[in-house]
Amino acid sequence: MDSPASQVLQLPELLELILLHLSQKDLLLSQRVSRTFRSTINHSPTLQRALFLAPDWKLECAGPFGLQHPTRYPGPKPENNRLLLRAFPGNYPTVSLVIVNDSPTPAEFATGRRGSEHWSWDVCVSFPADQLPHCGVPAVSYPEASWRRMYLCQPPCADLYLSRRYQRSARPAMVREGGITMGELFEGAVGARERGSWHPSFVSSDRDWHFEGTIRCSSVGE
């Protein structure tokens, strides 16, 4: 007869609640414990979002900024995918807060006023322009490695622009409506380098491509 603890671990609903208390790294490694653990993690939308393997679009928009809205503050900060720091220590996606200047409305333009401003969260990531990135652990090179399916951040960003200093490409270097994964960035950058698709003026002094992308958010009512 199975022990009470064993019986609990056989119930996917209860096992999911327990696994949600693990760190991202421990949750990923828990797939090796048993077939039950692996099946629960693979079939749980909540656990897949925790591992950045499924998108989570529930992020409140940061809202307006400026003198007209002096009490408005940024919304919750999106999550960095910390597992990518271990896999690619030199090319880790980071999230930063920026203020975006909107184009003036016809009424604002007619009176000579500037457009409004609003908060925005951007993801920034780099990729070597001349070689493959340094991998922090040997398992990163496996074709079936989990990082290939992981989003850069949560919620994901849907487009990435090449940037250098204060210059940003007019068109996105990469667009994925469902969100960009690290594997898509990796393959896209390697392919663009081989084809010469991206202008060399965007290669930085440290011989990297640098990308910026706005993180999509939802309004409170969505």
Distance between the termini: 48 Å
Rg for CA atoms: 21 Å
- The secondary-structure class comes to alpha+beta
Count of helical segments?
A: 8
Largest sheet: 7 strands, antiparallel
Give the ordered list of helices and strands. Answer: HHHHHEEHEHEEEEEHE
Mean pLDDT, rounded to whole units? 81
Number of DSSP strand runs: 9
Proportion of beta-strand residues: 15-25%
Helical residue percent?
25-40%
Low-confidence runs: 218-222
The oligomeric state of the chains shown is single chain
How is this structure best described in words?
InterPro entries: F-box-like_dom_sf (IPR036047), F-box_dom (IPR001810). This is F-box domain-containing protein. This protein has 222 residues and is α+β, with helices and mostly antiparallel strands. The chain has eight helices and nine strands. The strands form two sheets. Strands 1, 3, 4, 6, 7, 8 and 9 form a seven-stranded antiparallel sheet that branches. Strands 2-5 form a two-stranded antiparallel ribbon. A hairpin with a 2-residue loop joins strand 6 (159-164) and strand 7. Helix 2 (12-19) packs across helix 4. The longest helix is centred in the last third of the chain and has 14 residues, at 182-195.
